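pipeline stage [seq->struct] | target=Alpha/beta hydrolase | organism=Peloplasma aerotolerans | residues=273
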Amino acid sequence: MALMNFKGRNIYYEVNGTGTPILILNGIMMSTKSWEPFLKSFTHQNQLVRLDFIDQGQSDKLENSEYTQSIQVDIIEALLKELKISKINIVGISYGGEVAILFAIKHPELVERLVLFNTTPYTSPWLQEIGRQWNAIGKLRDGATYYKATIPVIYSPSYYASKLDWMKKREAFLIPIFSNPVFLDAMERLTNSAESYDARNGLDQISAPTLIVAADEDYLTPIANQKELHQAIKNSELVILPGVGHASMYEVPLLFVSLVLGFINTLETKYQI
C-alpha cells in the first residue's frame, strides 16, 4: 500500500508478489479492492501492480474539474517511473482497457503484452447516451435507483438469474456507496472523461502482442467493438466468451485468470509449427 504524488494529488497503488510484472487497470466503478479475489493467483508467479485512477477508490478526487482519460495515461507513466519498471504487461477491463489502449499508443516501448477485456475502440453514441443517463440518475442522489440503472446491465441475463442471492447481497453492499455524493460526483467526472475517447486512428501504432476478450452478452461494449479492435491492432488475438456479460471477470473468474496468466506468462508469442 502506497501513495504517489502526481502533480500535487495522491494516487493510491499496491504492489504484491514477485516475478514478471502485471499492471491491472480498473473498470470505471472499480478500485484496487475489486481485484482481491484474484490476488493469490496473480501473485503466485508474478508481481501485481494495482492502482486507483484519479477519482477512484483511495486516490484523490478532482472536485469541480473536467479532464479526459489522458490524465490516467500520465498517471500510469508516472507510476512506472516511481516503481522503476521499464516495461510492463497491462491488463485492462472496460474503462481500464480504454486507458490501456491510449497508453499503448502513446508509449509502445513501455508495453510488453496487452490484455483487453470488454473494451471498445471509441465511445459510441450508444455508450455516450448510457453514460449521460447514469449521470442524470446520479444527480438524484438515490443510491437504489443508481444501482438499478447501472449494475444489472453489466451482467448477462443468465448469470443474473442464476445468482439472485449474490446479486441481492451485492445490492445491499453497493447502495450505501451509491448514496454517497462524493462517489456520485467522482463517477460523473470519470464518465465524462470517457465521453470523448476515440483511439481508432492510433490502434495501428500498438506494437505489443495483444489479447482481446469479448463477451457475447456484453450490452455496454458489444462484441462488434472487440472485433473492430482485433481488425485494427496488427498483433492481436480475439477470444469470445459465450453467455457472458460485461463484468466477465466476475462471471467467469477461472477463465479470466487463465486467459490473463496464460497469455502473459507464455514464453513465446511466435511458434514454428
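stage status: PASS
auto-comment: The chain has a mean pLDDT of 97. The chain is about 40% helix and 20% strand.
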